[in-house]
Amino acid sequence: MLNRHPRILILTAGFGDGHLQVSSAILHYFHAQQVNQVQIIDLMKEAHPVLNSLFSKVYQMSTFTSQLGFDYYGWSYYMTRDSSPSGPVMRYLNGLVKRKMLETISRFRPDAIINTFPFGVVSQRECVHAARTFTVITDYALHSRWIHPDTFTYYVATNEIKDRMVQNYDGVAEKISVTGIPVRPQFYTAAAEAPLRGAAQGTAKGKRILMMAGTFTVFQQLVELIHLLVDQEVCEITVVCGRKQQAYEKLTALFAGQPQVNILGYVKNIHDLMAVSSCIVTKAGGITLSEAVILKLPIFILSPYGGQERENARYFKNNGMAQIASNVRQLAEQLRHFLSAPVISDRIRGNMAQFHRGTAGELIVNDILRTLHNHQNANRDYELLVRP
User: Fold this and answer.
1) Degrees to nearest 5, angle at CA 42 with 64 and 156
2) Closest among 274, 265, 279, 213 to 63, alpha carbons compared
3) Concatenated DSSP letters of 260-288
4) Which of 48, 175, 321, 387 is most exposed, with minimal Cβ within 10 Å?
5) Architecture of the 8-180+358-386 domain
6) For 57-66, how does the pLDDT look when each residue is reduced to its tens digit (9 = 90+)?
7) Which sequence spans correspond to the domains of the chain?
8) Contact predicate 281/336, CB 8 Å
9) 182, exposed or middle or buried, with CB in 10 Å at 0-12, 13-18, 19+?
């Protein structure tokens, strides 16, 4: 009998908000298709809460130690980037969550498993309950941890990632779909409303710089950049501090007399802020970069960390969608030049318009549902064929 209500299990991780945001975006598009039996599991947190907390702290610490020349995260990323998916390193990392993954599958009995974090995949021989496994690669660079022979479909951001996968791994060519990276629907809404909002306000985006405080490993770098810009450039600056309460309080005090500097804490409407900004200073996370592309928002990146962020930044720079600065003064000069030359913004926004592929989350969900539908029809036809 055809299952019209598939059960979907999304496996993710809380190392940064990006993977969780991708999972939430996919959840939204399943709900839009009236598929409501969808569960998101932070697998590492569920399997090893103490170890998960430790790994999160170690990851956060790496951003500071990299400034001192001890970039252990970057080293580990590049050392394992081309490792065999079945090698000892990958087997160990995947083994950390394998037991919890099997328990979750046995309990929830999903029809489809979607990885938004590179955990590895449970093979059919390891799991009594058969489920198709799909992987959403959330960066603009490829790492071997994403690869597993039992993955049914990989959803990737670019043709370059697809080409590299085909070159490096046998048997994956027919498993790859170039969709882009899923982002939350609010960004598409904000992109559609941006021209109307500008017309209603009677103004263009003007010179509005949006800065994400998490970009700056050293607090004083952020303070220096703001001073360099407000002292020499007529522009508005909005700084989003997120959950960095101490940074929010210090910046609010430092720039209390500067009306053109707006300091915010945690915000839920970051899409609205991006939609009315002329550019963004941010880290090179795959999801943030994808959000900026949808809103055609030029990107500035300061000293990207080794690993996927550095590779993401290089890809965006090479494709004319971002600029990279190695220090604060270079970043300030890039921003001043950008604000004084509208042709630069037009060129970057044009590159982003050509790069944008559509609604990635919707494409992925539709493809998964089509795959499940075809699989169920094939099983039904087989049962009819062998029935006495």
Assistant:
1) 80
2) 213
3) TEEEE-S-S-HHHHHHT-SEEE----HHH
4) 387
5) 3-Layer(aba) Sandwich (3.40)
6) 777 777 666 6
7) 8-180+358-386, 185-355
8) no
9) buried
In order of 92, 144, 169, 268, the CA distances from 83 in angstroms are: 13, 6, 11, 39
Residues 7, 11, 17, 23: is their CA dihedral positive or negative? negative
Residue 146 is given by DSSP the state G
Looking at domain 185-355, which of 2.30.29.30, 3.40.50.2000, 3.40.1280.10, 3.60.130.10 is its CATH number?
3.40.50.2000
Reported as a single tens digit per residue, the pLDDT across 121-169 is 655 555 546 689 999 999 999 999 899 888 999 999 999 999 999 999 9
Q: Is the dihedral of CA 90, 92, 96, 97 positive or negative?
A: positive
For all residues of the chain together, what is the average pLDDT?
86
CB 152 within 8 A of CB 176: no
Cα distance between residue 377 and residue 371, in whole Å: 10
Instruction: Give the whole-angstrom CA distance, residue 252 versus residue 261.
Output: 9
CA geometry: angle at 198 spanning 241 and 256, to 5°? Answer: 35
Task: Identify whether the C-beta of residue 273 lies closer than 8 Å to the C-beta of residue 210.
Answer: yes
Distance CA 52, CA 56 (A): 6
